[in-house]
């Protein structure tokens, strides 16, 4: 609920909380050693230390399992080499949770890298149009040494990322609810106050249809998020259910903010009315934590038992056809 109310005003604040609590902190809490939990969780819970979660790379986003960042065993620890991209909170994080491929076993491991570690550099990504308060970073690891004590022992492969993502997608499912509510608040007030042809916009049938559609979307999104939250509390939430909620809510939320922008007319593209901000921010929410397409394919796998992420090997691209 807190994520929803944050997002109702500013999705950047909600995203900051998501990355810190539901990715970085929860990874250490679920998969870290007791020593790591004692060292980090209290300060992170009180925001004395800020965390980020480094999985995405320049060459792979949706295909997150194709990690190229490597972890090589060296005396006393590990050497990390590679790059990460679009890492939220990355420029100011004190604690960086990094996923890298073990160069010997090929399995994915996870490490804690502290701010200021030699060989680690984070650079702010400029010129974003969405979630502008969130500091996304490009990261470079160049012979970055991490001691053995900073490797998370609970991570044995890429499948362990799903333990975290299933929980984080609950929060991401709530965020479009808040953003849609915020956009509706602004649109409903605007059409009551704005007059055209001598009467408030709210008196026109097409305007009321759009408001009703937004309300229907919001209530459906809210119930979807409530359901997966309860399933998680009961220990019955599946990856497919979490992905379905994230995909559905961002799709319907995207429609809501577009309707609100439409109702404001030309004023809908002005930052003063905040609807334009929700409009841009929703594009980021629609894409991160698994794109809409990837999440519906996860849900589709659950419905059919067939994974459709990759084209069958027998399928070939059609030859170019000349007119």
From TrEMBL:
Domain Acyl-CoA oxidase/dehydrogenase middle: 52-144
Gene3D superfamilies assigned: Acyl-CoA dehydrogenase/oxidase, N-terminal domain (1.10.540.10), Butyryl-CoA Dehydrogenase, subunit A, domain 2 (2.40.110.10), Butyryl-CoA Dehydrogenase, subunit A, domain 3 (1.20.140.10)
Protein family membership: Belongs to the acyl-CoA dehydrogenase family.
Signal peptide start-end: none
Cofactor dependency: FAD
Annotated source species: Monoraphidium neglectum
Domain Acyl-CoA dehydrogenase/oxidase N-terminal: 2-46
Gene Ontology, cellular component aspect: peroxisome
Stored Pfam families: Acyl-CoA_dh_1, Acyl-CoA_dh_M, Acyl-CoA_dh_N
GO molecular function: acyl-CoA dehydrogenase activity; acyl-CoA oxidase activity; flavin adenine dinucleotide binding
Domain Acyl-CoA dehydrogenase/oxidase C-terminal, residue spans: 157-302
The protein's Enzyme Commission number: 1.3.3.6
Alphabetic keyword roster: FAD, Flavoprotein, Oxidoreductase
Name of the protein: Acyl-CoA oxidase
InterPro entries listed in its UniProt record: ACX4-like (IPR045008), Acyl-CoA_DH_CS (IPR006089), Acyl-CoA_Oxase/DH_mid-dom (IPR006091), Acyl-CoA_Oxase/DH_mid-dom_sf (IPR046373), AcylCo_DH-like_C (IPR036250), AcylCo_DH/oxidase_C (IPR009075), AcylCoA_DH/ox_N (IPR013786), AcylCoA_DH/ox_N_sf (IPR037069)
GO biological process per UniProt: fatty acid beta-oxidation
């Amino acid at each position: 609920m807190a994520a929803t109310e944050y997002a109702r005003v500013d999705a950047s604040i909600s995203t900051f909380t998501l990355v810190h609590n539901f990715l970085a902190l929860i990874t250490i809490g679920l998969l870290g050693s007791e020593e790591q939990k004692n060292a980090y969780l209290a300060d992170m819970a009180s925001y004395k230390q800020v965390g980020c979660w480094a999985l995405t790379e320049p060459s792979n986003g949706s295909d997150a399992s194709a990690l190229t960042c490597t972890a090589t065993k060296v005396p006393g620890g590990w050497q990390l080499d590679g790059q990460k991209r679009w890492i939220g909170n990355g420029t100011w994080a004190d604690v960086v949770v990094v996923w890298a491929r073990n160069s010997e076993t090929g399995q994915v491991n996870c490490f804690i890298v502290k701010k200021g570690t030699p060989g680690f550099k984070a650079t702010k990504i400029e010129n974003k149009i969405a979630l502008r308060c969130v500091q996304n970073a490009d990261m470079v690891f160049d012979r970055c040494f991490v001691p053995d004590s900073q490797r998370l022992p609970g991570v044995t492969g890429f499948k362990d990322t799903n333990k975290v993502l299933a929980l984080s997608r609950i929060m991401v499912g709530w965020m479009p609810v808040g953003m849609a509510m915020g956009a509706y608040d602004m649109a409903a007030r605007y059409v009551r106050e704005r007059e055209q042809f001598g009467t408030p916009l709210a008196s026109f049938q097409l305007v009321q249809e759009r408001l009703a559609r937004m309300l229907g979307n919001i209530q459906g999104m809210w119930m979807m998020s409530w359901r997966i939250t309860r399933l998680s509390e009961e220990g019955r939430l599946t990856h497919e259910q979490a992905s379905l909620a994230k995909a559905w809510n961002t799709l319907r939320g995207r429609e809501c903010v577009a309707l609100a922008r439409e109702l404001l007319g030309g004023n809908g593209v002005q930052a003063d009315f905040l609807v334009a901000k929700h409009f841009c921010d929703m594009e980021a929410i629609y894409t991160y934590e698994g794109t809409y397409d990837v999440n519906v394919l996860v849900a589709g796998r659950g419905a059919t038992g067939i994974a459709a992420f990759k084209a069958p090997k027998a399928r070939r691209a059609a030859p170019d056809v000349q007119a």
